[in-house]
Design a protein that fits this description.
The complex is a heterodimer of chains A (about 325) and B (about 325). By secondary structure, chain A is α+β, with helices and mostly antiparallel strands. Chain A has eight helices and 19 strands. Helix content of chain A is about 25%, strand content about 35%. In chain B, a hairpin with a 2-residue loop joins strand 3 and strand 4. Classes of the chains: A alpha+beta (about 325), B mainly alpha (about 325).
Chain lengths: ~325, ~325
């Protein structure tokens, strides 16, 4: 395992800028998640580190070693592709053994066998080792793809939305499993996703990417509570953060220059009141909690509410802000 | 209807339409097979039977055609033949009945061997070069790739005979006329365009993530190509090889112009088999029958890949 450093890394495809001036340091044994929408440059960042793309500018080093001009095979990284990319002409066993049998490693057969069986057990695919890799369910393929990375002990594991094509239950299980394995191995891992729950639950640190730039990086708590701008604030939190004008609701103490308020559930106090400033439009019952859809003048807000709260659609309520987030004209956070 | 069935057909065809389809297929098969059957039957007729009119459907089979194909013969007086010891083998006996003796082996075997060497050699070269070129066009940013591909294809846009004279002159200058290597190069040049185009389609279908995964797993690009791309391209390679082989095997125009002696292939040789008093049709038919065998065997061996290859684009995804 090793640390990974990116300095001012940029990459364009034609006139489309995929990654722009990214500085990122991943510590040895750290689990970093890059979070961002499609096209934010997440996958390109992984491919640049793996050596599948050449950066237009900037440097990448792994374990202190500069990677410039080094082929993927020489970089000692493992990659889990979003589309599994299992070798279709090989069995599960052969897929898992493939990296170990590479000319770069040349492990002896007994060691390969032991390692493959150990990892197969770890990702719970040991009962299907002799299956053709094409004769597996999506979840099984994904576990083989992760296993194929885990058979090695590379400097860094790079994972590109490895859980995106699984159903919700399996995704939850594998999320825990992956975090457990990473801790156990003390592995350095860079993980790309657009799923905020994966980011929040697994990451030591989350990096938020937007339009090729690394907007903010910090612990999940920091990113959630202390977002640098509107974009970061909008990436985390369920329901979505409410963006309202500064003078819409009472309780705000906007600093100079604030033009918008970001209010999550915890920033909004609700009280039932006949003459309240808001009206309940609709209630979504989720079981353990309710989503309240609220209308204030022409603005719509969504917030969580206790299922026991005695409100019905059409009721008037009173909303007060408690320490919300303030944003300036340019979308940057103001404190 | 089972789920497996419904994946391929929306509605199972009815019994009547199945019968009509089967009838049409059989009819087509019969029509295309008639000439082949006729050639085979001619090959086991005696020379008089082969040219009798109306054509004979029922006849006494004879090996004379095959004997004449493999031998050259000289006419002798009946007295000379009567003085000879017992005939040695069937051909000897057949030949003596026509007042002739076997003088030696004919050129058929060396010509046939030329065909094998040139056709398989050029197929191997065309498919090998084609695979590498197709991989390059498929995976790398080749400057002017589209123009190059069009240029490669354009070599097939005219009939071979249109370039035969320049090639003949060129080959004479280079000393490649009537050499196996010259014919191999020529057929490779013609086939490589077909191979590049066919194989590029197949390789385009193989996601590049496979190679990328292999390269990250510790393989060089060439090793990844061999370990990951080639095994998945076998279908396309087999189909391409058959098309190339059929062309090189059957090619007549270049072969008859550029070869006459040591490098002559079977197609220009077979029609020149002349018996006494005209064309020796049973021998020609025998040569043609034997000529069909290698391509038949090769196609049967690869028929699974060929079928899958032809329907490849349609069923892959």
């Amino acid at each position: 395992m090793a640390d990974v450093t990116l300095k001012g890394v940029s990459k364009s495809f034609g006139d489309k800028r995929a990654v722009e001036g990214v500085d990122l340091h991943i510590k040895d044994g750290e689990f970093v998640v890059l979070l961002g929408p499609t096209g934010a440059g997440k996958t390109t960042t992984l491919r640049l580190i793996a050596g599948l793309e050449k950066p237009d500018a900037g440097t990448i080093s792994i374990g202190g070693r500069p990677m410039e001009g080094l082929a993927p095979a020489g970089r000692d990284v493992a990659f889990v592709f979003q589309q599994y990319s299992l070798y279709p002409h090989l069995t599960v066993y052969e897929n898992l053994a493939f990296p170990l049998r590479s000319p770069a490693r040349r492990m002896d057969a007994a060691a390969v066998d032991a390692r493959v069986r150990q990892v197969a057990k770890m990702v719970r695919i040991d009962h299907k080792l002799e299956n053709r890799s094409t004769r597996l369910s999506g979840g099984e393929m994904q576990r083989v793809a992760i296993g194929r990375a885990l058979v090695r002990r590379p400097a860094i594991y790079l994972m590109d939305e490895p859980l995106s094509s699984l159903d919700a239950k399996l995704r939850g299980e594998l999320r825990l499993e992956l975090k457990r394995i990473q801790k156990e191995l003390g592995a350095t891992l860079l993980y790309v996703t657009h799923d905020q729950i994966e980011a929040m639950t697994m990451a030591d640190r989350i990096g938020i990417l937007a339009e090729g730039r690394l907007v903010q990086i910090g612990t999940p708590r920091e990113i959630y509570a202390d977002p640098a701008n509107l974009h970061v604030a909008a990436r985390l939190g369920q329901p979505h953060i409410n963006i309202v004008p500064v003078d819409l609701l009472p309780g705000a103490t906007p600093p100079r220059g604030a033009t918008a308020i970001g209010a999550r559930t915890e920033h909004i106090a609700i009280a039932a009141s006949e003459g309240g400033n808001a009206r309940v439009d609709w209630i979504e019952h989720l079981g353990d909690q309710n989503h309240l859809h609220i209308r204030v003048g022409a603005h719509k807000l969504v917030t969580l509410a206790d299922p026991d709260m005695p409100v019905n659609p059409g009721d008037r309520i009173d909303l007060t802000l408690k320490n919300p987030l303030y944003f300036g004209q340019d979308g940057q956070r103001l404190v | 209807m089972s789920a497996a069935n419904s994946a391929h057909s929306v509605v199972e065809p009815g019994a009547a339409s199945k019968r009509i389809a089967a009838t049409l297929v059989i009819l087509y098969a019969v029509i295309t097979l008639v000439p082949l059957v006729w050639i085979f039957l001619t090959s086991i007729k005696s020379p008089p039977d082969s040219i009798s009119y109306p054509p004979k459907i029922l006849f006494t089979p004879s090996l004379e055609g095959y004997c004449n194909l493999f031998t050259t013969r000289t006419r002798q007086t009946p007295e000379y033949i009567a003085a000879l010891p017992e005939p040695d083998g069937i051909c000897d006996a057949v030949t003596r009945k026509r007042n002739m003796v076997i003088a030696g082996p004919s050129n058929f075997l060396p010509r046939f061997a030329n065909s094998l060497i040139i056709a398989f050699g050029s197929t191997f070269l065309a498919v090998g070069l084609g695979t590498l070129a197709a991989y390059g066009f498929s995976r790398f940013k080749v400057p002017l790739a589209d123009d190059l591909l069009f240029f490669i294809l354009s070599t097939r846009m005219m009939p071979p005979i249109a370039v035969a004279i320049p090639i003949y002159l060129m080959y004479r200058q280079l000393g490649l006329s009537d050499t196996a290597i010259g014919m191999m190069l020529l057929y490779t040049a013609v086939n490589v365009s077909l191979a590049v185009w066919l194989l590029k389609g197949f390789i385009d279908e193989i996601p590049r993530e496979y190679e990328e995964a292999a390269m990250i797993d510790g393989y060089s690009r060439l090793q990844a190509f061999r370990k990951v791309v080639l095994p998945q391209a076998t279908t396309g390679i087999a189909a391409t090889a058959i098309f190339c082989l059929i062309f090189a095997w059957n090619e007549y125009a270049f072969a008859s112009l550029l070869t006459s002696g040591s490098a002559q292939t079977a197609p220009p040789f077979i029609p020149t088999i002349i018996g006494e008093g005209g064309q020796d049709w049973p021998a020609v038919a025998a040569g043609t029958t034997i000529f069909l065998v290698p391509i038949l065997v090769f196609t049967i061996l690869l028929r699974k890949q060929l079928l899958r290859g032809i329907t490849f684009g349609a069923v892959r995804k």
